[in-house]
Amino acid sequence: MTSKWRIILVFLLLIASVTLPLLYTQLITLTEGLPGRILTYRLHRAIYAVLAGIVLATSGCILQATLRNPLVDHYVLGTGSGALFAVYTTLLLLEHVTLWVISLAAALGGLSALAITILIAESISGGDVAYVLSGIGVTSLFSGLSVLLLYYVASKYGYASLMLTGTFIHSRPENLPYTLLATTLILVGYILLAKRLNVIMLGDDHAAQLGVNPNVTRLLASIIAGVSASIIVSQFGVIGFLGLVTPHIARFILKTSDNRLVMPLAMALGALLLFTTDTLSRSIMTRIIGEVPAGAVISALGAPFFLLLLIRRFRGGLS
Amino acid sequence: MISTKNVTVAYKRSSIVALRDVNINIPGYSVTCILGPNASGKTTLLKTIAQLLSYNGVVEITGRDAKSIIRELRRILSYSSTLEERDLLGVTVLDVLVYSRYPVSRGFFTSEEDITRVREVAEKLGVGDLLSRRLSELSAGELQRVVLAAALAKDPRILLLDEPDSHLDVYSKIWLSSFLREISGQITVILSTHDPIFASMTCDYFVVLSRGEVAFIGLREELLKNTSILEKVYRVPFTSISLGELHVLLPLNQNTHRDKLVKLEEQSRRDTSYNSSNTRGDH
């Protein structure tokens, strides 16, 4: 297949991954004959799942490429738990908080956690496993603190406990601007960074002699990936491993590491995976065990994949 | 073509002076070798010319200050050492070559022109069959060829190669030597190496570094005559051997080779005088 057709197919799939979930939701809800406000709620929920999938998958692609590390995403690097801790702290400290303040706090918390993980990992050895170990430490720290804070926060805001494992149950129209902001940021990141990150993957000296400043690119990439993922966390909670799994599947399908194609395919996969999980959890699982947070299902699926990657990493090579 | 004036490089963290007052003039369209023991400043000099390090002094390329033509330099100059070999993100040989056209590739996506040029370079370097392979699936020799292909992918006019002969077997070294000599008609090549035999087979011009200072600069023929410079720098005896048109520098083992060589030289002198007296006898 020529490269032109591959590009067209990938972007058609991306468009389909956004439109089909919305069409499906509308169709199903209308055939069930449910009232308009349910349709509005479900459509919002579908849009959020799709856009969150896009943001988290791209964020994973950016973090993996910029750190030249296949074992990371915003969750593994502690960004998710750092953002959540900042959200809980803000809810606890401030009497009246708007979603703007929560998003800002999450972005700062997420970036701080990411910075701590990177600094510790670089001080150990800078190897890919050092990032995982350092990330586990930072995630444990902020998750533990978040759970402690939750005892107080949950009394004020009942839905806060749902954010520990990301969910779209409490989807509201108010979430839309923030979700769109994160999506816009990550799309700008794709256009600005995809080509540069390809070069960064080959090494810093190689990138520099081609005219790509590795330090500036890495800083920009970390900020864009960290902030956009943190905003999603501030709205829907921590959804782990989606950003880790989708880039690997995209690379496997495309047989290339080219971020200009891997990122849009990972976006499509992220959107479809998160929407499907959320829809299954809303429709089928509700009838059996009650509604399960989509984040929990994704983690249950993603964590074994992560362990598989880790094993293959130590046995030499990855496919 | 490429000259440095009073170039000094000091690493801030370790306060080590890697290069001190380096003044060299490297001719264009030739193969220049930077020789020197470990930590003599070979890589630092290559990186300084490539504008990858901060330095004091002036580097001039085609008569212009390199700092003032940095954007152009990224298109016309390739610096190549090793690629990040932690190939865990599925990087293929084709990816490496396509990405390495970054400063000359137009548009967001890979163009047909990029693909055509990359295939040409890959064929020229004998890696045309490896394009869909991942870096981790390559042998050390194949990887070295891919690294060279990546350096050539953007059609540079100046090629800086940091130890391009490392990990290569004898066949590949000979191939690399003749390839570099062939392209030096269109490209100025500067390389560093630890192998004096490879260097003397390949390079026309030599810069010998010792602890960050220039110990010798000049043509191969001059260095072949003055092996004492290398002996001083490497603290190993050297000799030069000529076999027809082939001239090579050979390091020797202080204890064993020198005695053997003296005997060989005596033997060779005796044979020559015997042959010449025989030839005279024929007349």
Describe the structure.
- The complex is a heterodimer of chains A (319) and B (283).
- In chain A, α3 crosses α4.
- Helix content of chain A is 78%, strand content 0%.
- Chain A has a single domain (3-309), classed as ABC transporter involved in vitamin B12 uptake, BtuC.
- By secondary structure, chain A is mostly helical.
- By secondary structure, chain B is α/β, with parallel strands linked by helices.
- Chain B has ten helices and twelve strands.
- Chain B has helices spanning 42-49, 70-76, 93-99, 112-124, 140-152, 170-183, 196-202, 220-225, 227-234, 257-282, and strands spanning 2-11, 16-26, 31-35, 56-61, 64-65, 77-80, 158-162, 188-192, 205-210, 213-219, 238-243, 246-251.
- In chain B, strands 6-7-8-3-9-10 form a six-stranded mixed sheet, with helices on both faces. Chain B has a four-stranded antiparallel sheet with strand order 2-1-4-5, with helices on one face.
- In chain B, a hairpin with a 2-residue loop joins β11 and β12 (246-251).
- In chain B, α3 packs parallel to α5.
- Chain B starts with a strand and ends with a helix.
- The model of chain B is unreliable at 279-283 (pLDDT under 50).
- The chains are: A mainly alpha (319), B alpha/beta (283).
- Chains A and B meet through α6 and α7 of A and α2, β6 and α3 of B.
